[in-house]
């Protein structure tokens, strides 16, 4: 039995998120089906995080155990061949110790959210960004974002379906970077609550539009009440960028 | 009668290029249908350049004449509303003099070609870039590109279907810029022959792979023979970026 760590990229549009769903395709199912076709084994794939319908990944980490002897490079190539035409690709594959766990060993998760500020509908970026008509003030958004960094009770920014035991999370980074009419929001934490990034970005958009002040973000956080949420951003603009592990530093 | 200049963006994947085709959808048809629905007139839309199946545009310029009195902003909004769900958007619309012609008044055309250097299949960028497995040497590609800049007979880099009177063209710019595993090729000229950019990029890819030397590019050009072409790049990575007009400087 060998444990493999995978780095995975996908276009979230055709999937009902990462996790198995009864009523539609999931990224997990696509990868497990491909692994089964290669090995004949019932392979379970565990990811660093579960993403929602329509959410993309640039570098999700996952692991699986395989009995059949196979080199990591060969496994990656075979998975990519079998994953076609699904828009899912394995970018890296390595052997890891049997106690390495994509979810439980993960010490930091990094997301990016992309807002395209313009009036016209999106074409090339349709499904890949949240379009908001200008004006949008990125400096006000950054001031609002600063209210959320640190250790807080994020109940306001948590989906009713969130299964986490505690609403306490430490948000290490929430940066707003404007590049022309693209506004990128970078969020980093050890872990996030369900819908937390989209909920935070939704409120930052209200701040950018001048409908909320940065202080309103602080008040929404302090309310610890989902009813205080201003707006939940759509999944289109959300990307799972990277997961960090203590072992990464040594192997890089 | 008012002449309107349009700036248009589209995702080329579902279209058989810009121009009307009997056997499939075209961008021109989509815009003309939208204009007809708004005005009741048979509107002809002329573009700065004709693009092939699968080629994208970030800022194509076009013009059309409309009898019905309508403000440019209203026309743009109505076109965008009617164009849905086609991945075509009008980014700008202005009134221009009756002798302004999107094709004949155009003094420079700018294209970008995107190559993604990696082994794994593309997911988020599928249809939006040409994937080539590494290694690819962008410095060698730049040296090959330098062979093509200037005024030359580009017969080697011209499709058999090209309708231009002359194979002589002046290539003002052919720059190769590497950004991580993305290689961007920027091409500028007053006008291009049919398939010229894709044909040039195809040969530069051979140089990047070490299968051609930069000198081979010069030899292919000197051959003035389509048979000397090494490779035609796929449409996926090609973007019409911008068209320039003498009037732009005054209005900007």
The proportion of strand residues of chain A reads 25-35%
Instruction: Give the radius of gyration of chain A.
Output: 19 Å
Number of discrete helical segments of chain A: 6
* CATH fold topology of the largest domain in chain A: Alpha-Beta Plaits
Main pleated-sheet profile of chain A: 10 strands, mixed
Structural class of chain A: alpha+beta
Q: Which two chains have the most extensive interface, and how many residues on each?
A: A-B, 24 and 24 residues
Give the domain tally of chain A: 2
Order of helices and strands of chain A: EHEEHEEEHEEEHHEH
> Outline of chain A, from the CA principal axes?
globular
End-to-end Cα distance of chain A, whole Å, is: 25 Å
Helix content of chain A: 25-40%
At CATH level 2, the architecture of the largest domain in chain A is 2-Layer Sandwich
DSSP strand tally of chain A: 10
